[in-house]
Amino acid sequence: MNISKRFMSICAVVGALALNANLAGAQTPAFFRIGTGGTAGTYYPIGGLIANAISGGGQKGVAGLVSTAVASNGSVANINAIQGGSMESGFTQSDVAYWAHSGTGLYEGKGKVDDLRLIATLYPETIHLVARKDAGIKSVADLKGKRVSIDEPGSGTIVDARIVLGAYGLKETDIKAEHLKPGPAGDRLRDGGLDAYFFVGGYPTGAISELATSSGISLVPITGPEVDKLIKDYTFFSKDTVPANTYKDVAETPTISVAAQWVTSSKQPDELVYNITKVMWSDATRAALDAGHAKGKMITLQNATTSLGIPLHPGAERFYREAGVLK
Question: Which UniProt key words apply to this protein (predicted)?
Answer without folding.
Answer: Signal
